[in-house]
Amino acid sequence: MRKSWIMTAVWTLVPWFAGIGQTVSPRTRLFDDGWRFHRGGALGAEAEKFDDSGWREVDLPHDWSIEDIPGTSSPFDSKAINQVNSGFTVGGTGWYRKTFSLPEADSTLRYALYFEGSYNHTIVWVNGREAGRHFYGYTSFGMDITPYLAFGKDNVVAVKVMNEGENNRWYSGSGLYRHVWLVRTNRIHVPLWGIDIRTPEISSRSAVVSVKTRVKNAGRKNESITLRTTVRDEKGREVGTVETAAVPAPDSTVEFVQDITVRSPRLWSIELPRLYTLVSEVLGGRIRLDSTATSFGIRSISFSPEKGFLLNGKSVKLKGGCVHHDNGPLGARTYDRAEERRIELLKASGFNAVRCSHNPPSPAYLDACDRLGMLVMDEAFDMWTDEKNPDDYHMYFNSCWRGDLESMVLRDRNHPSVVMWSIGNEIIGTEKPEMVETARRLAETVRSLDPTRPVTMAVNRLDLDRDSIFSVLDVAGYNYERNRYVPDHERNPGRVIVATESFPLESFEYWMAVTDHPWVIGDFVWTAIDYIGEASIGWRGYYQKADFFPWNLAYCGDIDICGWKRPQSFYRDVLWKQDQLSVFVTPPVPTFPFNPEKEYWSIWNWVDAAADWNWEGHESAPLNVQVYSSCEEVELRRDGRSLGRKPTNRSTRFTAEWKVPYGPGVLEAVGYRSGKPVRKSELRTAGKPAEIRLSADRTVLKADNQDLSYITVELVDAKGTRHPKAENRLRFEATGPVTIAAMGNGNPMSLESFQRPERKAWQGRCLVIVKSGREKGTAVLTVSAEGIPMASVQIAVE
To answer: Catalytic pick from 48, 426, 481, 635?
Structure first.
């Protein structure tokens, strides 16, 4: 979770009435609790006196598209407007209203609302008066609401969110799916995203922290102020400070430029993601008018065709994955813990970089990347002026691109994890001169806001000449074009290339190209984590059709929507890590029916493989057993009897295969290095489910109405082996200060509710996500299934 007193960018998170001495500081409070919600039209709901007493109470983050469609027990509809794009989920229009009061004593202060993200077209009213609109569902935005407020009595904010028509190519979610903040500031304050931190000079002895800080005077007279900027280390110790005076004129903004030298800097890296805090205080005499705290890191980056990507002067190959913004069973709801867990899962699977496809992520996501050491390609758009869907962002691009690009760069530029800016993904018509000129405008805008990072974009269809579009970029993003790496380098030896998307099925070829060529700095597979929407591109293929229903997941991720590794993730382990080993079997009958009309180039799938040695009815049938191994050689044993050793290296694509007649028992793979066993992996035939096994990733939660525990439910036999074919119906009950936030099982064709307290297992397991409330105490999750003893796990909420 993010610390309660730090927010990246410039909006200070301090307790609502905190302060030291004579202080008039910004007070920012989470505005997520206590909204009323209505799904559908609500004529006149923007009015202050509108009766919303019949509306449902919700807390944010909220996503109505992941909820059951009214009158059904499922969020999926075969007639959904977006069809396979949205995974057959439903958008529409939603209304939110919230009542709040402000003290009369605050009438001289300024207030704003800050939305981290709202999908999609959003209109905000305060006390019946329109305060602002926002058209892009993925960028953060703030609006001054001071002129519309009444002090000393109740105020009403109404928000209308419209996710109408065909406007996205994947699951977007609907509504206020990220945090909302209420911000109180003095008339003299650091405005939104008004701090720019750079580290232009770094050595082992010292680092220069160069800071530009904008301070706004929203008053009616000249003000003498001092900006005091302090750098603190991870333990809160002051390591440098500087003060600068200025006299901003009324209704103006002054920019301070300050340098602070930090001795013996502790650099931010993937392995040791050390962070500093920049504390910015605006002083008027002895009064502290404003105070903000910004997390940042000291690190250097560079890119060249000779040395590739260097972080702090050391070569780093980007072990990357593309990641959409949804959180699986939670839908688009952006709880901080959900964002953090995704990065934890990716780090555990060997990833060191993510591409935010195809839009800016949440602040919590980048905070987690900073803390955990994950590199980020921050991406702006999926389309520019040419549509991919009739109602998508192309309708607003010409009028909104600059503001949305500024939102991404200004908000995210202080994150050390961000190492590249992407201005687009597979933009239509990039061979045209007018689109090259658009790319030039976007790239120049990004560089004007942040010249410290390179600009890239993901380009496909390189059979057409793309030299013109690449000429305006710093790094060339190639989608599915590994065969162009060498000829393009020979033609353009100064080009730095990154695989912005690659096929899982060709992960060996893509990674070998990265290891072999210094000018190819990394590979971002499509995708690192599975997602809702683009239904079944990882099995039935692309182009998609309406008859793909009931498929609702893409089914192409290394990690599934519950956070469990899929077979291709275990194969990627052997490409990236030493002495890895895993065993899979080709099912005697396909896991799912294939699409007979699948395009030959549509290879987002993986081979049909199962970690399963339960094949009743196929006794004695020769089954193909594959062992993925980065050991020097591997031995396969059946019930203790050796079936021989085989080498596993680059020449064998780190894979060994055997034909093994099926029979119940144990398959065991043993990996060897220098003739000695270094790793084992096994498949064991499971008996019928006899027990429910629960494991929670966290058993202590914060009582903040936001914290999450992810609980894995497994159906195991009497010896503790999970049954990989068990699909028992499971029922869940939570007592104490938690609620069940969502559940899932990773089945890409399941139409079950993500929110009702029951679900069938798939492959012998299920996931339950519980959320803390504001009360403290002990919570219990109980899971039951017919004919099996129930099980429970305790969660402490503190």
So the answer is: 426
